[in-house]
Amino acid sequence: MEIQTETLKEPPDAGKKKVIVDLVKVNKFYGLNHVVKNLNLSIYEKEFLSILGPSGCGKTTILRLIAGFEQATSGEIFVEGQNIKEKEPFQRNVNTVFQSYALFPHMTVYDNIAYGLKMKKVPKDEIRKRVAKAITMVRLEGFDLRYPVQLSGGQKQRVAIARAIINNPRVLLLDEPLGALDMKLRKQMQIELKSLQAYLGITFVYVTHDQEEALTMSDRIAVMNAGILDQCDKPEEIYDRPATRFIADFIGETNLFECVAELEKDGIAYLYCEAGDLLGKSEGYDPNEIVYVSVRPEKMKCSPAAVDGFSLGGIVRENIYLGNIIKTIINLTNGQAIKINTPVGAKIPQAGSVQYVYWDIKDAVMIYTPSVNKIIEQLSATNIPIGQTRV
Amino acid sequence: MGGAVFKKKNIPLFAMISPVTAWLIVLIAIPLVYILAISFCSTNADHNIAFHFTLKNYIRLFDPTILGIYSNSLIVSILSTAFCILLAYPFAYVLAKTTPFKKTLMMIFLMLPFWTNSLIRLYSWRTLLGKNGYINEFLVYIGLIDAPLEMMFTRGAVILGMVYTLLPFMVLPIHTAIDKLDTSLIEASKDLGANFWQTFKNVILPLTAPGIFAGSIMVFIPSLGFFFVSDLMGGGNNQIIGNLISRQFKESYNWPFGATLSIMLIVLTIVCVRLYTKSGGKLDELGNI
Ligand SMILES: Nc1ncnc2c1ncn2[C@@H]1O[C@H](COP(=O)(O)OP(=O)(O)OP(=O)(O)O)[C@@H](O)[C@H]1O
Ligand SMILES: [Mg+2]
């Protein structure tokens, strides 16, 4: 399965950072269902790492593996350099904020937060001090004696966070912690979580399926696709240089062209797709190789006449007003709908007119795809059923 | 009832509910009132009910023999309930946490005996526990004891019979409570550093206590009255409240005193159920098993 490891870029300052959680060749099966596929992932100290992916891609499973609620079918997981198989859950400096909060309904806010300390038989006085501090930190003063049913969603969330950080973990695992909150509260909690992480100086492993949330909060994002880690990198990198077609499609809005390489000259790749000819960056493709080109709507341009090297003609279907931008939809000859975002005030093509789309070569994101022959070769070597491949 | 209720459109409604209402009135309400009434009466020389007011039956409740039977009955019920909890809890826990297939299998094993008449099943204990029963024969054979033990017709045997008869009524409500318990609460407890016993004591037990309470009512109250169990297993020397009541009606022909004892049993039941609802239990869960 070499195809995954080559997409894993180390951050530039990786040498300085200490790895705190290390997953090495981790596989997880539920019966015959291969849920986590050969996962290699190093999580660094004090980093905010998001695990992003569509529903059912194995995000929760990875978190549960790190937390020790689930055993990996094969592979090793190290926390602070120690294999977690050798440690009981309570010996690890890892705590979890559950998706459904999982607050103890029969205990007050105070008792919920104090639970971890009580289990460790910390003296009463110290418990009182530390709980008071945690309550202040999540701004729940005066709620000590309430029961979880008497709290709002956002307040429950704060209790869950306070309860999880009371034991001073080195790593906090959060499973879609803001999933149940409304948009406004979500935004506010995002900021609070981010500053809490900076204040505590600990690692956050944050599961979400909201790409915007991941892009704004994370130091790095690990993008999962059907159990495979496609790319783990800084948000800008993920957005500007998606490693796979899946990520290009999944993160943000884009126009994706499935192309065949023709020739390369002076750093320019000449390609063609079903709808016509187009240009991209030269990256040493062999003739007839399949290449994906992704162009963001804000980088896409159009003109009434064809531009050199491009022959992607179509008819403007509609212009949609979206507040600060206008989205133009152009149907190409093969039926593909191209999206172009133009700031309000700029010139926009008339609906029904014929237009040719093009872009600056530097704005084309090239996604290399191993040739079909190579894929089949790899699949037969790794026994992945063909339908599940990521390319 | 005001005249307004008897509108034409209400006729189908009355047609539907009146059979049940009639049933409840004739077969439950009237007999109850009758029982309450005769509990304040006495009998004449021919064992017929003499309809004049007396508190004699209620005073007789404090007779030492009667008090003795009450206390024996309460001990049997309390111990039966306790044993049922101890047996049912682990079983219900496994039942709630196992795979659907094993769950079905365990349910069948729990329920299968109940397809046989309970008297026959109780009788079969005699062949096991009796003087010449298999267990005694085996113990004598291996030389552990010299003479057969008296195992039948003891209080222990009565309790065994009660537990045997009433165990499913404890398992089911506890199972419902454990089933409803969110697994992530158990995981949260472990995540925060609790070991299994701490998790059990602080999270699982308090959150499944309503199930234990519901099951206890389902076991405690019948075990005060299941006279056939103490008849078969206790052989007449371990009387419970149920025996006392049945004897008043069938042997002593003292219906008024039997009625008084029945009223006391109803009062006891109401007190138990009140305690249950006061502690947050839901009546639904008593019927919902
Ligand atoms: N206990 C389990 N037994 C069997 N299969 C499971 C179990 N838990 C999860 N799965 C399967 O594993 C896959 C990944 O599940 P997981 O919960 O990790 O997804 P997820 O990425 O967290 O999705 P979501 O965003 O919907 O929470 C799913 O196909 C799911 O059906
Ligand atoms: Mg999940």
Task: Please give a structural write-up.
- The complex is a heterodimer of chains A (391) and B (289).
- Chain A is α+β, with helices and mostly antiparallel strands.
- Chain A has helices at residues 2-5, 59-67, 109-119, 124-137, 153-165, 183-200, 211-217, 235-240, 245-250, 372-382; strands spanning 19-30, 33-44, 48-52, 74-79, 82-83, 94-97, 171-175, 203-208, 220-225, 228-233, 255-265, 268-273, 276-281, 290-295, 301-303, 312-322, 325-332, 337-343, 354-358, 365-368.
- Helix content of chain A is 25%, strand content 34%.
- By secondary structure, chain B is an all-alpha fold.
- Chain B has one domain (63-287): MetI-like (MetI-like fold), CATH 1.10.3720.
- Chain B has helices spanning 11-38, 56-60, 64-97, 100-111, 118-129, 134-141, 155-180, 183-191, 196-225, 227-234, 241-250, 255-278, 283-287; strands at 42-43, 49-50.
- A two-stranded antiparallel sheet of chain B has the order 1-2.
- The two termini of chain B are 36 Å apart.
- At the A-B interface, helix 3 of A face helix 8 and helix 9 of B.
- The complex binds adenosine-5'-triphosphate (ATP) and magnesium ion.
- Magnesium ion binds at residues 59-60, 175 of chain A.
